[in-house]
């Protein structure tokens, strides 16, 4: 498959891009080369190969949920610039 400058111009218009004539020719050449390279995949025999979403098996890497002691309220508020009633006090963002 080959991409011409007119197709590049159409895609650039859809993307709201302004390209010079030289850029259109350059992109047409580059996109054609990419498609030509991708066409090599058609030469591969994929009969009997199961479709996958990942090339490697994906496993759950989450750790077990373990209950443990957390930071106390006083420790958490120790470095806060301002606190009130045991909570962080921040400037209002809504009026």
If you had to describe this structure to a student in words, what would you say it looks like?
GO terms for molecular function: asparaginyl-tRNA synthase (glutamine-hydrolyzing) activity; ATP binding; glutaminyl-tRNA synthase (glutamine-hydrolyzing) activity; transferase activity. InterPro entries: Asp/Glu-ADT_sf_sub_c (IPR036113), GatC (IPR003837). It catalyses: L-glutamyl-tRNA(Gln) + L-glutamine + ATP + H2O = L-glutaminyl-tRNA(Gln) + L-glutamate + ADP + phosphate + H(+); L-aspartyl-tRNA(Asn) + L-glutamine + ATP + H2O = L-asparaginyl-tRNA(Asn) + L-glutamate + ADP + phosphate + 2 H(+). This protein is mostly helical and 95 residues long. It has a domain at 5-43: Glu-tRNAGln amidotransferase C subunit, N-terminal domain (Histone, subunit A, Orthogonal Bundle), CATH 1.10.20.60. It is built from 3 helices and 2 strands. A two-stranded antiparallel ribbon has the order 1-2. Helix 1 (5-14) crosses helix 2 (21-38).
The number of E-state strands comes to 2
Task: Determine the strand fraction and express it as a percent band.
Answer: under 5%
* Low-confidence sequence ranges: none
**Arithmetic mean pLDDT:** 90
Say what the CATH topology of the domain at 5-43 is: Histone, subunit A
Shape: flat
The secondary structure category is mainly alpha
Q: Provide the helix percentage.
A: 25-40%
Strand order of the largest sheet: 1-2
Give me the number of helical elements: 3
CATH superfamily of the domain at 5-43: Glu-tRNAGln amidotransferase C subunit, N-terminal domain
Q: Characterize the largest beta sheet: strand count, sense, and whether it forms a barrel.
A: 2 strands, antiparallel
Order of helices and strands: HHHEE
Query: What is the rounded Rg?
Result: 29 Å
What's the CATH first level of the domain at 5-43?
Answer: Mainly Alpha
Query: What's the N-to-C terminus distance?
Result: 59 Å
CATH architecture annotation of the domain at 5-43: Orthogonal Bundle
């Amino acid at each position: 498959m080959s991409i011409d400058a007119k197709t590049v111009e159409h895609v650039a218009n859809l993307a709201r891009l302004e390209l010079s004539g030289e850029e259109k020719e350059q992109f047409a050449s580059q996109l054609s080369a990419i498609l030509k390279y991708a066409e090599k995949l058609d030469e591969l025999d994929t009969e009997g190969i199961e479709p996958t979403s990942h090339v490697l098996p994906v496993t759950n890497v989450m750790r077990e949920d373990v209950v443990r002691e957390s930071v106390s309220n006083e420790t958490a508020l120790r470095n806060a610039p301002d606190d009130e009633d045991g909570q962080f006090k921040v400037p209002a963002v809504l009026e």
